[in-house]
Amino acid sequence: MCGIVAYIGSEKAGPILFDTLKRLEYRGYDSAGVAVKSQESKDSLEVLKSAGRIADLEKVYLKLGSPGETVGIGHTRWATHGNPTDRNAHPHVSGDVAIVHNGIIENYLELRESLEEMGVQFQSETDSEVLAHLVRMYYQGDLAGAVTKALGQVEGSYAVAILCPRSPYLVCARRDSPLVLGMGKDAVYAASDVPAILSYTRDIVRMKDGEMALLYKDKIELRDASGASKPLELEKIEWGVDAAEKGGYPHFMLKEIHEQPRALQETFAGRILEIEGDVRLDLGMTDFEIRSLNRVSIVACGTSYHAGLFAKYLFSRAAGLPVDVEVASEFQHIQLRPGTLLISITQSGETADTLLALKKSKVCGVKTIAITNVVGSTVTGLADGTIFTRAGPEIGVAATKTFTAQMAALLLLAVRLGKARNYLTPDQARKMLMEFTRLPGLVQSVLEKREEIKAIAEKYAYAECYFFIGRDFLYPIALEGALKLKEIAYIPSEGYAGGELKHGPLALITGKTPVVALATCGKKVQSNIKEVRARGADVIAFASEDDSDIVKVASTVVELPKTRPALSAVLCAVAVQLLAYYTANKLNLPIDKPRNLAKCVTVE
Ligand code: M6R
């Protein structure tokens, strides 16, 4: 998984490539590179690439006197084939053809062998390099034609940008990897995501699978998979560059945690029909089809998987539907029976395991819904219906606002399913929806507890291990709290259903293992708190206001607003995010770019 950019216009390409690449670092950041048309000698390239951060490479570029002309391509990498080294960094070059690639070329070994038999010498261990050699081999004055032939031999996924100084245009193409184009004044841009180019243009074209684009400095020629020209569908981006920048917070993660009231409001906006006691969603299903459902199967990864587990409790209670939730990479599609609704949850819409699980489920002929935060992402083209969470771009690697927005989308879906199946009366649905509208305000109250949570985080920041426990709706949040702490604070953490502790993990509890008890719904967790207190552990409880029983058993209590259990899970999610954030901050860790991780995992 990587980020790619391209520029052709009337300004020097290098600085623009570095600037746009830096905004894509969340897609991968172990190596970077640029290729620009040379100023010195016509029809040749200047290529600069290395392992490490983009900012370091930029310094080298500036030291060299900012070489290059007004056209170029760039790449930020997260290694998949070959280690993060200088020679594996993109662009890959063959003669005067340079390419940057995001995706996986599945048949690259086969292609590499046949190219080697023809005498081609490879410089890297990457799958991507084969593309550079193929394009060069086919190039006879028509770059688009050569790229078409090369891509015709490739199995797998790609978003590519290709530069050859002999050609008057750049070529971009995509299959199963995101790519957007931007139309500026005397300039055309390409990038893996919109925020990268937003400070240059707001006129965007989202490329679709199979499309190829020829980028000239004053126009874009778009072609479909058959090579026929297509009219450009320009989209005006309304959200500001600020939305993709830190906006005064020290980290994107903290900014994104604070954006949650807004993200929830947006996700609910225009969808709650209070008078009818119903919800408006584009599910691609009739009420009759919803009534015929007998099961829901959910596939997702990481934090999105935890949102899936939350839905398990929700759908059974609001719609009488049993739910299976599976980690997408372990999905066994043969268990899908007619009458199943398959839901794939993925904030990025590009997670390879989730996309594959969704594709497998489609073979079984079941109805499918995607829940995603990215309009135009690959998942939206695969599912029958899509619910967009409207959290805005999330840059921090740790999912925060996209998670609670997924929970909000699932709350809406639960009511829609319950209503269509006559499982909820209009009155019950109306009551639930009214409470949903109060959720953004309740989340705001949790954010106001930040200093209290920060003090706790700092007190336990050097703990060797943490436990999170919760029951019912709060069990998925216990898992999420543990994941967050592992991910950004690097503290080994375990999430458990409260009732499971005594079946083994209790052996690990000592005075050195702080336990976070999510205690906003139900009384049963109190006995679990007593169990761990008896073993010497400190217990930090997130509980509802005025719960005097919890105060008697926990070491520290943070009071959260009282609300229905499903909504209190959202409040606890925000609380554990803050706990993880302030812990990692105390430890001075690179919160937005935790080691070994990337925002969007487009490999299986
Ligand atoms: O884009 P997705 O929601 O499909 O991503 C799934 C996981 O990779 C993601 O949730 C990951 O676990 C987060 N970094 C956790 O904060």
Count helical runs: 18
What's the CATH topology label of the largest domain? Glutamine Phosphoribosylpyrophosphate, subunit 1, domain 1
Q: Termini, distance in Å?
A: 10 Å
Structural class: alpha/beta
CATH architecture of the largest domain: 4-Layer Sandwich
Outline type: globular
Biggest sheet features: 8 strands, antiparallel
Strand content: 15-25%
Provide the residue-averaged pLDDT. Answer: 93
Structural topology:
Blueprint: E1 2-9, H1 13-22, E2 31-37, E3 45-51, H2 54-63, E4 71-77, E5 92-94, E6 97-102, H3 108-117, H4 129-138, H5 143-152, E7 158-163, E8 170-175, E9 180-184, E10 187-191, E11 203-206, E12 212-215, E13 220-223, E14 229-230, E15 235-236, H6 252-258, H7 260-268, E16 272-273, E17 278-279, H8 287-291, E18 295-300, H9 302-319, E19 323-327, E20 340-345, H10 352-363, E21 367-372, H11 378-382, E22 385-388, H12 401-420, H13 426-447, H14 450-459, E23 466-470, H15 475-489, E24 493-497, E25 515-519, H16 525-534, E26 539-544, H17 548-553, E27 556-560, H18 565-586
Parallel strand pairs: 18-19, 18-20, 20-21, 21-22, 23-24, 23-25, 25-26, 26-27
Antiparallel strand pairs: 1-4, 1-10, 2-3, 2-4, 5-6, 6-7, 7-8, 8-12, 9-10, 9-11, 11-15, 12-13, 13-14, 16-17
Bound molecules: 5-amino-5-deoxy-1-O-phosphono-D-mannitol (M6R).
